[in-house]
Input
Amino acid sequence: MNASLNNVNKLINTIIADRKQSRAAAAATAAESQGDKTSKDLLDIILNASETDLSPQYLRDEIITFMGAGHETTSTTTMWTLYELCRHPSILVKLQQEIDGILGNPTSTDRIEVIIYENLNKFEYLTAVIKETLRLHPPVSMIGRKNLEDYQLGEFMIRKNSLIGINMLALHTNPVYWKDPWEYKPDRWLDGTKIHPFQYIPFSAGTDALTLTHSLTHSLTYSLTYLLTYLCPGGRNCLGQRFANMELIVMLGHLLSNFDVRMTADQLSSMREEETVVTQPTNLDMIFTPRC
Output
């Protein structure tokens, strides 16, 4: 474990050092030409902040967070989405119809080859598919919180500074909140049903408790949602939520525009779920066929 951490730290430190060197060279060139030609990506923004406010260790930790959390979770969600589409071919057909309606038929000579930012909101059904995947397969299945004061929840007293584990999958499949909770139904996100903000939390959750009214009962049926609402103040949503959703739309949109995907009965039955840093499918074999 320590050896692996050392390798990660070495990689991150190398990335930081290389970028600082390239920034210095670019700054010198910009000074000569009287123009700033340095890049402005996420790493640059963090480095700009680190020049005044962040320690080297904090800088490294922030970059590790973005590199780790921003890749493994998104790739895992992509795999789970393709798996569910293979299990539900009719949903795949409907999804590809939407994609073709936006990008054009795979055999069309004037089809759109690149999904641009302005087109992202057009993928309503794809967005619903992604949400339904995250509901049944949240990459991070458990989040932790510490309550700030004693609280009586039904017959249980939760003492101040208690560590609280919140099971996302239990919340996402609670029949009190969801109709047919274990069924993969993307249309549930398009039928106008109102979703409580803490009913669906694949990107974590948290808010200022003082701004909330007690709209939920104190019964244990609502315990998970109420704990999130009352005991977990502060901004706790995933910083990369919007970016992750955009990544998923672009990746799945392009992939399913160009390929059909399926799994045989044996392939479906041999898939296993593995809990590591994320909850991911293993032994996942798929068959991709070009659509044009």
